[in-house]
Amino acid sequence: MRARLILWGIAALLLIALPPLATALGQPYYVDLARRILILAIAAISLNLILGYGGLVSFGHAAYLGIGAYAVGILGFYGIANGWIHLLVAIGASALVAAAIGAVSIRASGIYFIMITLAFTQMLYYLGISLDVYGGDDGMRLKSRSQFAGLVDLRDPVAFYYVALGVMLLFVFLTYRIVNSRFGMALRAAKSNEARSRAIGFPPYPYRLAAFIIAGAMCGVAGALYANHTGYITPGLMAWHQSGEMMFMVILGGMASTAGPVLGTFALLLVEEVLKGWTEHWQVILGPLLVLSVVFFRRGLAGIFFKPDA
Amino acid sequence: MLEVKGLCKSFGALRASDGIDFHVAEGETHALIGPNGAGKTTFINQLAGTLRPDAGTIRFAGEDITRLPAPRRARKGLARSFQITSVYPGFTALENVALAVQARSGHSFRFWRDARRDPALTGPARQVLEEVGLEERMHVLAGNLAHGEQRSLEVAMALATRPRLLLLDEPMAGMGADESQRMIGLLSSLKRRQTIVLVEHDMDAVFRLADRIAVLVYGRVIASDSPEKIKMNEEVRRAYLGEGA
Q1: B245 has pLDDT over 50
Q2: Do A109 and A205 form a contact (C-beta atoms < 8 A)?
């Protein structure tokens, strides 16, 4: 426990020190890269709640990244720039859609659950393409960043970086509390042995659905931040390969571990970045690397440092 | 306490429960015996709510529960153990039992406090573990416990829900002689204050523990009586105990 806290402390300090270091090295691009990683790590943390702790293999988590992003884009389109409203709508809309998708899909299990979550997300993807008002296939440019008057200016890349870092650390802590609470124990128990849970009086459905909604809402926040990060929103955010990449971040980092999704996101995106610098055929190298990592690190990268939670 | 009437359940052409009538009075230990394939586990699964009967009714504490799902029955006080060990292998013994305590402590939509440091859960859980003799193993992962210990943990989890009726599906299954003796000891200490339905192959255990015995053969109860009378019953001898018994 103490060792974990120390490692988290070191990681947080390194991340806090990154912008001044990058500036000193004359490489402001690294701040941009790290910010993108932090935002996607938030998405991965939210997916880990249902995938890792809940055992719900959702192949449609990118939906909420898209909904959060479009919430910012569409509100901005109509001249609403207040960041708090952006966040509120991103969270609310993601939670609502998660409630609808979850209510239908969680009754199914195994491959059916995977296919239903995928199908719903593809529907949203095509909805995004068909909305010509909001750019359709081409996507839309953000009119202005979310505004948090007097608090922080997201146009400042370094300030925005610290916002992303703060939100990520907050979500790591929130998830940690949730998975160790009574709710989290009920959720994880249902993953471990559903028949046993039913027999002692836990119906798995309401706990899974609640987790699904919480994860959706958290990912909506990531989406809102992501829209501000890129300044441009496309339906591609909701495409199935985006969902797949998020699953990979979680699995690579270590399912059902606090640090897993963060480690996984950093590892995947950094390796991707390095390979992209070498060759345009980087995916040919990344694929086998990922396969090897899963073969050799069954418990993910976090498993190298810690024993995984149940 | 429990009243089953005309329970039927078929799997294709196989009638696993063929009009079962079964009564359990408050405070008694009622054993259910029968040869392999007689339909004992199918019957228990219908009592616990994991299988839905084709026909018949199950009344528990005066209420018709025939159509209630398993978790609702558990919260009404029907607890079970499984024939094939069913615990949470990645959680410690203490966490396993604490989860059962949690299940009976109202809803679990509590998102903040650490459940594993909640004395309202761990306190009663420790008590039950002491009762079944697992207190020294409480921090061991359930998956790493010996077989006999896992069987005791099963019983502990059922007990931790504070059931009004305990359904035990072959609690001695796969146990060595020593472990069986310990389990019999545990069950006889429970017997004084707990209503129990006991499915068991170990005849020594059944005749030591049961107040009444029902004999199930091909999905029918062919006899239901005191242990002494069951021992004397010709039909039961032929069907189950063997001619030489």
Answers
A1: no
A2: no
Closest CA to B165 of B63, B17, B15: B63
User: DSSP alpha helices (H): ranges in A139-281?
Assistant: 157-180, 182-192, 194-200, 204-230, 240-253, 260-278
Domain residues for A43? Answer: 28-239
pLDDT at A299: 84
Residue type, B27: G
* Same domain, yes or no: B156 and B171: no
Tell me the three state secondary structure of residue B29: strand
Task: Tell me which chain A residue has its CA closest to the CA of residue B90.
Answer: A310
* pLDDT per residue as tens digits for the range A225-275: 999 999 999 999 999 999 999 999 999 999 999 999 999 999 999 999 999
How many inter-chain contacts (A to B, CB under 8 Å) are there?
A: 108
Contact A203 B71 (CB under 8 A): yes
Question: Which positions in chain B touch A186 (Cβ < 8 Å)?
Answer: 99, 102-103, 108
Tokens of B29: 């230990």
CB contact under 8 A, A201 and B71: yes
* B103 touches A: beta carbon within 8 Å: yes
Predicted local distance difference test score (pLDDT) of residue A310? 44
Give the residue from chain A lying closest to B160, CA to CA. A200
- Any CB–CB contact under 8 A between A202 and chain B? yes
Quick check: is A274 in a domain? no
For residue B244, the model assigns a pLDDT of 46
Tokens of residue A154, six digits = 């997201």
Q: What is the tally of structural domains in chain B? A: 2
Instruction: Give the domain range for residue B22.
Output: 1-77+165-245
Residues 6+ positions from B14 with CB-CB distance below 8 Å: none
